[in-house]
């Protein structure tokens, strides 16, 4: 299902059916994106609703006939998620120590593991929820959403170096958790 210009115009005129159609479209498109940043469906839905309200309000200020709605709406949802994160500011308490440059290089190495490649999306998202939230956010923004460290630093109000550190930390913690998962599965098959 695509959203056409007429649906967007109807939303501007407070047509409830059009707004419902737009909401259903946005829900299908962006709930998974919101789930990347939240540990439960209720919080993700709350974040999506906040983003949707910004989308509705933002329709007034864009040229509808030239609009790539999906890309525009995704950007609004991501920015809304980041704004919500900024409000919490818990990330400052989660930074405990910094690794040396040598350790950063070691953890940033590209290691290919066939077992990791076979993990499902849900398993990866589950593992992300086990690491500190700021590191998970940086990992998600960098690896999944394609932001660079400068952009991440600006979005999360941290330095580029801190963004790199959190990415390295996330990779290290995820690697450790994957090794534990692999050891558990090896024990199951050994029986």
In short:
The protein is mostly helical. Helices cover 74% and strands 0% of the residues. It folds into 2 domains: 84 residues, RNA polymerase sigma factor, region 2, helix turn helix motif (Rna Polymerase Sigma Factor, Chain: A, Orthogonal Bundle); 100 residues, Orthogonal Bundle (Arc Repressor Mutant, subunit A), CATH 1.10.10.
N/C terminus separation: 49 Å
Helix content: over 70%
Q: Identify low-pLDDT runs.
A: 91-102
Q: Can you say what the CATH homologous superfamily of the largest domain is?
A: Winged helix-like DNA-binding domain superfamily/Winged helix DNA-binding domain
Structural class category? mainly alpha
The percent range for strand residues is under 5%
- Residue-averaged pLDDT: 81
How many separate structural domains? 2
* CATH C-level category of the largest domain: Mainly Alpha
User: So, CATH architecture of the largest domain?
Assistant: Orthogonal Bundle
Secondary-structure element order, as H and E?
A: HHHHHHHHHHH
* CATH-defined topology of the largest domain: Arc Repressor Mutant, subunit A
Main beta sheet: strand number and arrangement?
Answer: none
Features:
191 residues, 74% helix, elongated, mainly alpha, 0% strand, Arc Repressor Mutant, subunit A, 2 domains, 11 helices, Rna Polymerase Sigma Factor, Chain: A
Describe this structure in words.
The protein is mostly helical and 191 residues long. It has two domains: 5-88, RNA polymerase sigma factor, region 2, helix turn helix motif (Rna Polymerase Sigma Factor, Chain: A); 91-190, Arc Repressor Mutant, subunit A (Orthogonal Bundle). Helices cover 74% and strands 0% of the residues. It is built from eleven helices and no strands. Helix 1 (5-12) packs across helix 2 (16-37), helix 9 (133-144) crosses helix 11 (160-190) and helix 10 (149-156) packs across helix 11. The termini are far apart. Residues 91-102 have low confidence and may be disordered.
């Amino acid at each position: 299902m695509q959203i056409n210009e007429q649906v967007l115009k109807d939303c501007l005129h407070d047509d409830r059916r059009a707004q419902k159609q737009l909401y259903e479209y946005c829900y299908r498109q962006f709930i998974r994106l919101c789930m990347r940043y939240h540990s439960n469906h209720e919080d993700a839905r709350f974040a999506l609703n906040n983003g949707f309200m910004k989308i509705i309000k933002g329709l007034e200020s864009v040229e509808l006939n030239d609009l790539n709605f999906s890309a525009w709406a995704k950007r609004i949802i991501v920015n809304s998620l980041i704004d919500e994160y900024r409000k919490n500011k818990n990330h400052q308490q989660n930074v405990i120590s910094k690794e040396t440059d040598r350790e950063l290089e070691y953890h940033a190495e590209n290691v290919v593991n066939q077992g990791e490649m076979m993990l499902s999306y849900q398993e990866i998202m589950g593992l992300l929820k086990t690491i500190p939230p700021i590191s998970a956010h940086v990992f998600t923004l960098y690896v999944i959403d394609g932001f660079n460290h400068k952009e991440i630093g600006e979005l999360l109000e941290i330095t580029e170096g801190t963004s790199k550190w959190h990415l390295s930390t996330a990779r290290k913690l995820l690697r450790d958790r994957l090794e534990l998962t692999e050891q558990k599965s090896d024990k199951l098959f050994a029986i």
